[in-house]
Amino acid sequence: MSTALTAATDALLATYRRAPMELVRGVGVELFDAEGKAYLDFVAGIAVNALGYGDAGLRRAMHEAIEGDLVHVSNLYRTSPGERLAERLVESSFADRVFFCNSGAEANEGAFKMARRWARSHYEPSKHEIIALRGAFHGRLFGTLAATDRWQYRMPFRPLAGGISITERDLGELDGKLNPETVAAVIVEPVQGEGGVRVIDPEFLRSLRALTAERNVLLIVDEIQCGYGRTGTFWAYEQSGITPDILTTAKPMAGGLPMGAILMTRAVADAMQPGDHGTTFGGGPFVASVGLHVFDRLNDPKMLAHVTENGAWLGASLHALAARSMKVRAVRGLGYMWGLDITEAAKDVVARALDLGLLICSAGEHTLRLLPPLVATRADLARGVQLLEQAIG
Known about the structure:
alpha/beta; 2 domains; 17 strands; single chain; Aspartate Aminotransferase, domain 2; seven-stranded mixed beta sheet
């Protein structure tokens, strides 16, 4: 190394504009910086920390997982925790098989491969295209970036992966583009997170499901941010009554440890052959053991009722805030996942909220995003709305 690093941040690639404080510990739904200042957390590690901080059950699950000294053995060998978690995921959903990985972007990349492998097994090679919707965010790897509707993320890395396109959230346009001879799959987020917290109309999802089924096109549901109880049902797709062919999930799966998954029907699974896909770390015994605890906590009917009831209260409170403020143009969301369109730059309100001790993030240049831990009480939510209103001004 030619020059000494003068600060810890010098060693990190600057792909994020980090807030200036250093976070050192968390309790409940609050984080604390090195100076002792408390922050009410309405980001939750970008929808990861569903159980908040210092959760006794999560800590116990991690300790028990490490006691066997079996952190990793690779997927060349069987271990029980991943198999048991896969069984729980299958029992809770439409799926017949599960593939574990380490992140949401990996899950979506794998889903694209599986869709193409399914299509290649039954149809001509021309049937390989993947279609995403306007406002989508599916990741930053080459395949998922091609399905992500953010020009500023895409432009520096062109040419992106071929055979992947974005179309309007319009059934008429989709009807014209879903050529059964060329399209393998459509991918959709029931609630678009990075795209502005836009709740996709359940009737639209039902019509899209009918259209894809009619054309022999797979429907991939991306629940990386909106799944695992965040909307009040364990899976967001449940609220529209549809049955997808593939589902991707990740963020909260292992309580902050890296974990993702692809859930699929037997028809998709049967097309995959040994060697078609892989992962070194996915579904390892340590993360899967923790994942079992998180699944049981978030799939508890009491937890889901808590999110549904308090999420409705939060939504009503945000609509009331909007009615009082000329600076809020729209409110959208479901459960513990809300977005507010505002008249000024979102980053400025995020910065003012930070000064007030509230952590929020953006979902576009003029959209604030709220993702409180699912354990947040109504009192926590009320305090957050009060601080948010002060930050908006």
